[in-house]
Task: structure prediction
Amino acid sequence: MMLSKFSGKNIQISPTAIIGQNVRIGDNAIIYDNVEIGDNTVICNDCVIGEPLNDYYGNEEQYSNPITKIGADSLIRSHTIIYAGSQIGHHFQTGHRVTIRENMSIGSHCSIGTLGDLQGCSELGNYCRLHSNVHIGQHSKLGNFVFVYPYVVFTNDPTPPSDICIGPTVGDFSQIATGSVLLPGVKIGEHCLVGAGSVVTKNVADFQLVAGNPGRFIKDVREIVDRVTGENHYPWPYHFDRNMPWENVGFEKWLKNSDSQIVMDGLLRGG
Amino acid sequence: MMLSKFSGKNIQISPTAIIGQNVRIGDNAIIYDNVEIGDNTVICNDCVIGEPLNDYYGNEEQYSNPITKIGADSLIRSHTIIYAGSQIGHHFQTGHRVTIRENMSIGSHCSIGTLGDLQGCSELGNYCRLHSNVHIGQHSKLGNFVFVYPYVVFTNDPTPPSDICIGPTVGDFSQIATGSVLLPGVKIGEHCLVGAGSVVTKNVADFQLVAGNPGRFIKDVREIVDRVTGENHYPWPYHFDRNMPWENVGFEKWLKNSDSQIVMDGLLRGG
Amino acid sequence: MMLSKFSGKNIQISPTAIIGQNVRIGDNAIIYDNVEIGDNTVICNDCVIGEPLNDYYGNEEQYSNPITKIGADSLIRSHTIIYAGSQIGHHFQTGHRVTIRENMSIGSHCSIGTLGDLQGCSELGNYCRLHSNVHIGQHSKLGNFVFVYPYVVFTNDPTPPSDICIGPTVGDFSQIATGSVLLPGVKIGEHCLVGAGSVVTKNVADFQLVAGNPGRFIKDVREIVDRVTGENHYPWPYHFDRNMPWENVGFEKWLKNSDSQIVMDGLLRGG
Result:
């Protein structure tokens, strides 16, 4: 390339930020106080990392920015804003213009698509993938290997407006398809599939496919067949391995590995 | 903070802009011609205030930018674009990356969440709250204390594409929950609740809960109980007061105050 | 205007970019390697044209940016990101903060609204209009004069997650109304209308109106009447001509013109 994304123009880095080895930072990026960035991570142009919380505007001089951690080997695409006070594991990726509010706990190998809007105070396990334009309300909890497709919203106020805030919970391996809304406090089990455009008003048991508005039980996901092969597709880890830790190993074999338990227990974070 | 959001870098302010006392303007912000900003307002980094209208591109030299007013004590978060030609009251707040087109009339104490997209030529009363990613088509009209939740869309063309443009109308205190679509010209009364994921095709009378696709009358909102207390929650102003003018006073008592009539008549704008 | 959008500040243009006559480029814009921009086109402030693909991050020095073409007389509004490797016709317009990934083929006279998110590897014919916040998954195909309204999503994975990727197809003149989701591989004919909030799970024949979740056949679009005139509105080209090539000519007469066949064959691109 004749023109680099990393020409070093207009970058601001707080003297209290801790930047790992071989980190690249794009033009116009800002790294605020008390941000810690792991080795080999790329922060693209126009990103804001450690965005000060609302208290900042009231008293800039006395304000102290909470610690923000982003793990190693991550790629934060341009115009992403990550507020101060979140802990994010390694191999993290964002699309463009992602907004992540404070007090998020995000495992390793997670990705958040373009325009994603995480409202803070929520937990994501390891290997979660949020596609474009997903909105996660406060106090949501996602397990490991939870994939969320475009324009899904996790809500949290059962009688709006109120001071009650109870987010949805989604178990390991579950898939929430495009444009669905999860109502406040719903619990979705493991290996579930929520069909596109569903409004989930009730809890969903393990292995259920639900769809519709309101969402209704359709069938066991283990009865769904692949359009191309005609074979059962779920549980999907047996049939999909791109960028998964069982890639080229097989899910069954990986489950027996010593490190799979660390991933499934959500303990990958520090790695 | 060791690093300030207001270091004065790359700010451009038109000589015809009128900036109030104690206004702070973030790095890379642009304030175009004929913008008026009230006292104590904060314009964060990378905001564009008074964005020129489409005519500008045809003839930059002869183009005259309409007046844009943003009231006192407002907080415009980063990367927000507000077109020229809108009037916005005091105590206005935006999230990040909000886009507000021309000829909007917005009351006082309103807020527009991250990624909000207001298409212009619409009216919001006082104390309206639009959460993240709400889309307001042209010629919509929202009363006072109308709260709109994420990914709601107000539409305006009954037979697309056509030259007819009739936006929805929403009465005082009504709540439009996540992911709902209001069809062109629907009139929603006062104290209504539109359930998440609804497609509202018909008018909704005062105090009605509607839900579903198409939206159907479910019950009177006064029959809905709070999940925690088990008591009736609506009309909500009797049970929710955070940042409302009746905070610590009580709704009933506030209604009898001399200034409540000014708020309810939508006359707070100049204050 | 006292303050110009084109003051020439912080612009970066690769020496391998080819910029047409009378092109204006806004402040802070970046034009990467091998971008070709047609005459009279306006690139507004903070746009990124020819954004390098993911391979760039692995080996910046050996990376070669694919060719990106944007036709003449286009207007790219601020903060739009267009990846390298797309071909876009003349008279193209975007709203703000649009994201267009690689390997898109977009005809002439198309527009993409604010926050639009085109995931790449898809085709749009001529005169397509995508309103705000439309998401087009990979391997989608839109004909000519297809209008897509806010918050519509084109999906492509029938059994998520899988390696199957089959996008929807939409025929000439069809209209996809607000908040609809098109499921993977659905084929929508010509002159169709998909009602707001629909989840389209099955193919739709020419001239059908479908609506609901799941989408169901409602009636022939030729039975739909205009709310104002009370007359049939569809096929809409007989009743709507704003910015259409038959403006002030009439659809019937235009169809008989020699150049209408070029438009309908999707061959306008080079013009």
Remarks:
- Chain B has a mean pLDDT of 96.
